[in-house]
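Subject line: Sequence and fold of a protein, written as structure tokens
Body of memo: The sequence and its backbone structure tokens, given next.
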Amino acid sequence: MAERKLVRVAAVQIAPDLETSDGTLGRVLAAIAEAGEKGVEFSVFPETFIPWYPYFSFVYPPVLTGAEHIRLYENAVAVPGPVTEAISAAARRHNMVIVLGVNERDYGSLYNTQLIFNADGALLLKRRKITPTFHERMIWGQGDGAGLKVVDTAVGKVGALACWEHYNPLARYALMTQHEEIHAAQFPGSLVGPIFAEQIEVTIRHHALESGCFVVNATGWLTEAQIVSIAPEERLQKALRGGCMSAIISPEGSHVVPPLTSGEGLLIADLDMGLIIKRKRMMDSVGHYARPELLSLNHDTRPAVPRHDTAPLPLTETGSPQNVPDHD
């Protein structure tokens, strides 16, 4: 029988620095250090936390967001780059697996990107949100199936999805088929109000039950001053309050510790990894409870690239192209 194992994890709910990427990075590094002092082995930060989530796009129409969108480009993260180097060093220093959400800049495009760093500092996964939601489509490009991958880490098999990707059952199933043991979920927080927090809770608890894994979910937080700075008009400010549900869920669908729904803090819990087998003994969605001869997933894992190079045909001794036989 496999040895039971405890893993100490943290869901980090803090506010970004809305002025500079370096300011937010400093807050991330401080939270990692605090978690490390408390023996945390695995930590999750909110969606696109560096430099900040584009809250402006939720409260203003596109015609009014140009300056803020450009500022997001100017503060976005290159992968690899100085930000990833700093997080890698922190992961290595504290022997911690870290899941971080960033706005990734790739030349002229921005992406909602999730990064998974192993405890030795190695960047194991860079994945992009496959479908930005509603207002986000004016901000980010789309990811691809290559990022729907579970990676082996120092704490076990880890998969990740961002926000409403959890409403795509096939995206979740793609990770389930790879037998994730800890699922990192990331949401922006400080949006829509209590109904958003309730929806997050339902979603992550259901995934834990269906996948038979632990879920560590981190949502962001905005201070009152930050809300006013983003939306000076009082009628818009209510859209930036509430919606926080940093939580740690067991494979049995229950909270391991009470969730964090307001304010800043580190939500910390010890995961009993033996609960995974306890759940899957009863219901393994991709094993004994599956019917692949009836229902299966076609997952295109090829990276989506705008250019495909075709090699030239080999030449004959006279310099003309050789005839290449057709293949069925």
Notes: The chain has a mean pLDDT of 95. The two ends are 49 Å apart (CA to CA). The chain has one domain: 6-282.
